[in-house]
Amino acid sequence: MISNGKIPAELSHEASDRWREFCSALKRAHLVLPSDATLSDAIKRVFAFSDFVARSCVQAPAMFLDLITSRDLQRSYLPGEYDAHVAEKIEGVTAHQALVSGRVANL
C-alpha cells in the first residue's frame, strides 16, 4: 500500500494496485524506471487520481519512459512551439495510411 501521506486513504489501495500493474508492465517489456523517489511518488499520485493515465502507462510503458527521459513531462512549451513540432512531423503526409504507418508515430 502507498503510504506517503499525500494520497487520500480512500485512493491508496487502488493507487497501489495501479502502481504494481505498471511495474509489472515495465518488467514484461524489459524496461526499468529511473531510480528517482520523487518521480516514483509523483507517478503514484497521478495513478491515484487518473485511471486513464495509469492504463495508458500500463499499455505503453516504453512511451511513458520516453516522455520521462526526453523531459517532455517536466517542461512547458512556448506558444506555438508544439504546433510547429507537429507541423514538421506531418509535413507531406497526405494519406491516412502514412499517419498510421509510423511516419508520424514519434510526435
Describe this structure in words.
The chain has 107 residues and is mostly helical. It folds into two domains: 1-75, no CATH class; 77-107, no CATH class. The protein contains six helices and no strands. It has helices at residues 9-28, 37-49, 51-59, 61-69, 81-90, 96-103. Helix 1 (9-28) crosses helix 2 and helix 1 (9-28) runs parallel beside helix 3 (51-59). The longest helix is centred in the N-terminal third of the chain and has 20 residues, at 9-28. The N and C termini lie far apart (35 Å).
Quick tags:
2 domains, mainly alpha
Order of helices and strands: HHHHHH
| Overall number of strands | 0
Major sheet: none
Number of helices: 6
Distance between the ends: 35 Å
Query: What integer is the average pLDDT?
Result: 83
Could you tell me the radius of gyration in angstroms? Answer: 17 Å
Q: What is the SS-derived class?
A: mainly alpha
Our count of domains comes out at 2
Classify the oligomer: single chain
User: In one word, what is the shape?
Assistant: globular
